[in-house]
Amino acid sequence: MLAICDNTIQKTYYEILSVSEDANYEEIRMNYKSALLNTHPDKLQKYPSSSDDDQNFLIVQKAWEILGDLNSRAQYDKELRDLRRKVVVIASEIELGEMDLEINDGNFELIYPCRCGDNFCINYVELRDLGVILGENGEVQEFGTGFVPVSVVLPCGSCSLNVRLLIEKSI
């Protein structure tokens, strides 16, 4: 239940309302009102308002809906604690060009060796779903329409290590 912004930086509802996680009801209410005025499309005096402005306003409302109610706040806090326990640690960042091509039965798979001896892998279908089309030699042939740079966390096949695969058009 984390609010996720377009730039993939995750913000908690507490951060959206600029309050600490141990804030009392009154602090949350005051900061909600302030955030509401700062994000309300009618108050921004921008015509036409952008979808980002509308989204920010809706996120502030959702933060109040969750944090303003004792039961939903308790549930949110529990989910937040659970999520923090599941944080994935990234061993390193790699790019498509650093991966080796492996072809099995006509299916492409890009692999990168892990220090445990196994590999980090991503296949042709997973890349295609991200908007990346590979040629026969494993080189990027084209990027789908509307492609935006992305990153994907790849787990090792054997150990607990993960790498972040950065996919950008400059490749």
Overview in brief:
By secondary structure, the chain is α+β, with helices and mostly antiparallel strands. The chain has helices at residues 13-16, 25-39, 41-44, 51-67, 70-85, 124-129, and strands spanning 3-4, 10-11, 92-95, 100-104, 107-113, 119-123, 132-134, 140-143, 150-155, 162-167. The two termini are 34 Å apart.
Mean pLDDT: 80
Strands of the biggest beta sheet: in what spatial order?
3-10-9
Query: How widely separated are the two ends?
Result: 34 Å
Give the overall form: elongated
Describe this structure in words.
- This protein has helices spanning 13-16, 25-39, 41-44, 51-67, 70-85, 124-129; strands at residues 3-4, 10-11, 92-95, 100-104, 107-113, 119-123, 132-134, 140-143, 150-155, 162-167.
- The protein is of the alpha+beta class and 171 residues long.
- A three-stranded mixed sheet has the order 3-10-9, with no helix packed on it.
- The longest helix is centred in the middle third of the chain and has 17 residues, at 51-67.
- The model is unreliable at 1-9 (pLDDT under 50).
